[in-house]
Specification:
The complex is a heterodimer. By secondary structure, chain A is an all-beta fold. Chain A is built from no helices and eleven strands. In chain A, the strands form two sheets. In chain A, strands 2, 4, 5, 6, 9, 10 and 11 form a seven-stranded mixed beta sheet that branches. By secondary structure, chain B is mainly β. Chain B is 0% helix and 52% strand. In chain B, strands 2, 5, 6, 10, 11 and 12 form a six-stranded mixed beta sheet that branches. The radius of gyration of chain B is 14 Å and the shape is globular. Classes of the chains: A mainly beta, B mainly beta. At the A-B interface, strand 4, strand 5, strand 9 and strand 10 of A face strand 5, strand 6 and strand 11 of B.
Chain lengths: 116, 115
């Protein structure tokens, strides 16, 4: 158990819908990272939040957005869903004590999203 | 941009034997971190081992060790005394020390353990 929690475990929805994925980082971790794992794209970095602020963006679609709340949990919002958005979405957390950061990222169990 | 290549989509090994998974990467940075993550059928991503590029000594964690060749940009994972529980997808990943902290992953190697 990494200490990172994600809900829900599974999500089945229809095209055009909107869903919210939730992540709680390990105790003491300030950074949350979101990754997408799909068959055709592999594991890709989407976005990072550090202590409530967006820190880095990767290959995140404009239909997707995220935020990190004062209690450090994070939500990834996916809207106007398409079939191709079906994937496993991971949240990871790390301490990020400054620059250079030496933290390792610990992954949650993931949310499997199926868009029908 | 950094890239990570795992050229072995699948590997198999007899139980109790040793297997080596290959990983190469491309970067212009001199300081960085390298990781091996394991993804068993449960799909959980589990950290196996980590290497800091400025350290010449190869990292080891029990039965897992790496062969880090910085000049060759190679980072292979050796699993000794393979066990059935080692069956999984293994991903090599790169992370910069400065700037973007994202992990850049390879495409993975599926390891099968033969009883």
């Amino acid at each position: 158990d990494s200490g990172v929690t994600q809900t829900p475990k599974h999500l089945i929805t229809a095209t055009g819908q909107r869903v919210t994925l939730r992540c709680s980082p390990r105790s003491g971790d300030l950074s949350v990272y979101w990754y997408q794992q799909s068959l055709d794209q592999g594991l890709q970095f989407l976005i990072q939040y550090y202590n409530g602020e967006e820190r880095a963006k990767g290959n995140i679609l404009e239909r997707f957005s995220a935020q990190q709340f004062p209690d450090l949990h994070s939500e990834l919002n996916l809207s106007s869903l398409e079939l191709g958005d079906s994937a496993l979405y991971f949240c990871a957390s790390g301490r990020t004590s400054g620059s250079p950061s030496t933290d390792t990222q610990y992954f949650g169990p993931g949310t499997r999203l199926t868009v029908l | 941009a950094q890239t990570v290549t795992q050229s072995q989509p699948e590997m198999s090994v007899q139980e109790a034997e040793t297997v080596t998974l290959s990983c190469t990467y491309d970067t212009s940075e001199s300081d960085y971190y390298l990781f091996w993550y394991k993804q068993p059928p449960s799909r959980q991503m589990i950290l196996v081992i980590r290497q800091e590029a400025y350290k010449q000594q190869n990292a080891t964690e029990n039965r897992f060790s790496v062969n880090f060749q910085k000049a060759a940009k190679s980072f292979s994972l050796k699993i000794s005394d393979s066990q059935l529980g080692d069956a999984a997808m293994y991903f090599c990943a790169y992370r910069s020390v400065f700037g973007n902290e994202k992990l850049t992953f390879g495409t993975g190697t599926r390891l099968t353990i033969i009883p």
